[in-house]
Design a protein that fits this description.
With about 140 residues, the protein is an all-alpha fold. The protein is built from eight helices and no strands.
């Protein structure tokens, strides 16, 4: 990866951390114009879309990123969050379960997995994930 691309990705992360989603979206669009399958740029654009209230667009970007980096835990978690926002609870559960199987899955993955399961009316099945979230918190 070129130094220029790394700098642009770092700038996009900084813009997101500062809450400037419009600028982050624009910069990610520029990056993806030159490197359309870059999983980090796709994930960052998805985060910006999610922060902007566009979970469907975010889910599309996260899915594209996962085509290139299928075991990226953060992207799996973000896709799960986007699906929760869309009310796609069964799919969110499946994606978050994949994320939970990766080494070092954070408490947030387990919490969201529990919520996805709860939203399907399966409180007993959600309990182990929620207990794991509390244990890791």
């Amino acid at each position: 990866m070129s130094a220029s691309l790394n700098n642009k990705l770092r700038n996009a992360r900084t813009l997101l951390q500062n809450g400037d989603t419009a600028a982050a979206l624009a910069l990610c669009g520029e990056i993806l114009g030159k490197a359309p399958r870059n999983p980090e740029a796709l994930t960052l654009r998805g985060i910006a879309a999610l922060m902007s209230g566009a979970p469907a667009e975010a889910a599309r970007d996260f899915r594209q990123a996962l085509n290139t980096a299928p075991r990226d835990g953060a992207t799996l978690e973000y896709l799960g969050l986007a699906l929760l926002n869309l009310g796609e609870f069964a799919e969110a559960e499946a994606v978050l379960r994949r994320a939970s199987l990766l080494a070092g899955a954070p408490a947030s993955v387990w919490m969201r997995l529990g919520l996805a399961t709860l939203h399907q009316g399966r409180a007993t099945a959600a309990l182990p994930a929620l207990q794991q979230a509390v244990a890791l918190a």
